[in-house]
Specification:
single chain; mainly beta; Beta-galactosidase, Chain A, domain 5; 3-stranded antiparallel sheet; 13 strands; globular
Length: 196
């Protein structure tokens, strides 16, 4: 006597596993004494693009603090969670409104061109950061690869939309030497040396 048993059951389609990176919360540690930044970076990446809201003091050692309400610009290198300020190289700031005339009448400083922002119009995800700059009505977006950082600025209609580049900016430091070379209409080469 042979017995044949067969069972049929409905097996759900395999779900694709959730990527652990989607559970990361880049804003954690940006307040209090966490000393982290919310910007775009890759694991072991060469750059860490992030907004700078302050560049001095213990709570400003990552360049960003959640309690701040203005952005000085977006720099390319940051330390996270160290408790000591450093880096903050090559700051960029999108501005609107004819800076050429105003720069002649007063010294250039990041404080002069900073912009207010709201945390409600700020988004930080792994590898991506976006914020609306209230003063200039500019949306700034940052992302990165292993070795490069990319900025995208969406300006309002204006004949005076510019991007300021500050090579002497630093978080609790200043470079001893900096240079900028215009290689072509689409390529700039910047060099900073922090140590003498």
């Amino acid at each position: 006597m042979a017995l044949l048993l067969a069972g049929f059951s409905r097996v759900p389609a395999a779900e694709s596993p959730r990527e652990p990176v989607l559970d990361a919360l880049p804003m954690v540690g940006t307040g209090g004494h966490g000393h982290t930044y919310p910007g775009a970076t890759r694991p072991f990446g060469f750059v860490q693009l992030s907004p700078d809201t302050r560049i001095s003091g213990w709570d400003g050692c990552s360049g960003y603090h959640e309690s701040d309400s203005s952005i000085l610009g977006f720099s390319h290198t940051h330390l996270s969670g160290t408790g000591i300020g450093d880096l903050g190289d090559a700051l960029l700031m999108p501005v609107v409104g004819g800076t050429a005339e105003s720069v002649q009448s007063a010294p250039f400083s990041t404080e002069r061109f900073k912009s207010g922002f709201s945390h409600e119009r700020e988004l930080a995800e792994p590898g991506y950061y976006r914020v609306k700059l209230d003063r200039y009505n500019v949306t700034a977006e940052l992302t990165s690869t292993e070795r490069a950082g990319m900025h995208r600025y969406t300006f309002p209609a204006s004949r005076h939309a510019e991007v300021l580049i500050d090579l002497v900016h630093g978080i609790n430091n200043k470079p001893v030497e900096a240079s900028l070379t215009i290689e072509s209409p689409t390529l700039l080469a910047a060099l900073e040396r922090i140590c003498p």
